[in-house]
Amino acid sequence: MSQAQVEVSEVHWLMDMFQTVDVGLVVLNCDYRIQVWNGFMENHSGLTPRQVRDRYLFDLFSEIDEDWLRRKCDPVILLKNRAFTIWEQRPYIFKFRNYRPITGSAEYMYQNSTIFPLTDARGQVTHLCFIIYDVTDVAVSRIELESMNGRLKQLTKTDFLTQLFNRGHWEENLIQEFKRLQRYQHKSTLLMCDIDHFKRINDTFGHAAGDVVIQAIADAVRNNLRATDIAGRYGGEEYAVLLVDTPLAQAAVLAERLRKSVEAMSIAYNGQQLKVTLSLGLAEYHSGMTEHRQWIEAADKGLYQSKANGRNQLTCYSADSPLL
Known about the structure:
- This protein has helices at about 5-20, 40-45, 50, 55-60, 65-80, 135-155, 165-185, 200-205, 205-225, 250-265, 290-310, and strands at about 25-30, 35, 85, 110-120, 125-135, 190-195, 230-235, 240-245, 265-270, 270-275, 280-285, 315.
- The longest helix is centred in the middle third of the chain and has 22 residues, at about 135-155.
- The strands form three sheets. A five-stranded antiparallel β-sheet has the order 2-1-5-4-3. A five-stranded mixed β-sheet has the order 7-8-6-11-12, with helices on both faces.
- It is elongated, with a radius of gyration of 33 Å.
- The protein folds into two domains: about 5-145, PAS domain (Beta-Lactamase); about 160-315, Reverse transcriptase/Diguanylate cyclase domain (Alpha-Beta Plaits), CATH 3.30.70.
- Helix 8 packs across helix 9 (about 205-225).
- Residues about 5-10 have low confidence and may be disordered.
- About 45% of the residues lie in helices and about 20% in strands.
- It catalyses: 2 GTP = 3',3'-c-di-GMP + 2 diphosphate.
């Protein structure tokens, strides 16, 4: 084989590799007109090398942020440095659809890229070469993992049955509010409420009915909350609501509204309509409290007094006049 034949054969191998390699290869001149477009880019864009040859990149792909890409490429041209893009910062340069079956949940191809300069015989940068890597598998796995971690984190805060905050997370919020109130002259009120005669529901209709009632009351609590209120399942059939920046008189209006809404409810279970009521206790924070448990105890005292007075009512506790 002659030297010329060897050289032609080597060029053929190189061209074959260039067209079949599983990364995108794009060469632009310094005016951002496309000079080279390999098989990967053709397969994913649907545009042949002939169709894109000498076309202005930003005319063909309007989704590319021209200012951003030029800022990326200017140092490559001026300083002959390489530049990189990663999907975490920008999901893609070229918005290609994702066709991988394993990562079918992704609408488009996530991409990393490398941009490097191509120089002439005098060392002047005349072209830019882009290597486009499909990293959809990695990106989707990372996103799903982060989403799963987020859901797990949420589960550690949430009561499974009611979807309100669980006692631990709710009490953490109460402690933070208690510390804030110790520093600033604000008024916040704590509401504790309990389902009346709940044991009777369990004994008569079973624990499944009890769960339905607990969920229904949780929905009523949630429907009567404002954006700033923090509600949790304190335990069993007892609920706690932190009414932030709410004085006792205003809190009493909100609590009474909750009591009346529950009183008016009819909860469907196995073809029967169950009626329940709430007993409620309120306590406003005052400076004599030295730790948050005293606040809980004060609201609880109001709740127990409501029970003692016949249930289905609200009692407000205050430091000056323990039961109003």
